[in-house]
Amino acid sequence: MRRLSMLCAAAGLAVTAFVAASPAEASYHLIRWHDTGFCQIWDESIPTTPWPAGYHRASATVPTFIDALAVKDSALKNGHCSW
Fold this sequence. Notes:
The chain is built from 2 helices and 3 strands. It is an alpha+beta fold. Strands 2-1-3 form a 3-stranded antiparallel sheet, covered by helices on one side. Strand 1 and strand 2 (39-43) form a beta hairpin. The longest helix has 20 residues, at 2-21. Residues 1-26 form the signal peptide. Keywords: Signal.
C-alpha cells in the first residue's frame, strides 16, 4: 500500500511539472459592439461567446495580448473603434 501511495504521489508531481513547463497557447481578436462602436479584446480560450450578442469580429486572430493591444490601438487611431 505504501508503494502505491508513493507511485501516485510521484505521478502527480510529474504531471504538475509537465503542465507548469508547457507554454500556454492563447490567441486573441478584437470585437466591436454594434450599438456603441466600442472595441474590446476577446480571449479565444474563453469557451463562451460575448454577451449580449450585438457584436462582430473586427480583426484577425493574433497570438499575444500585446499584439491585440496594438491592433486595438491602430483601430482607435483609424476611427474604426470608439472609446
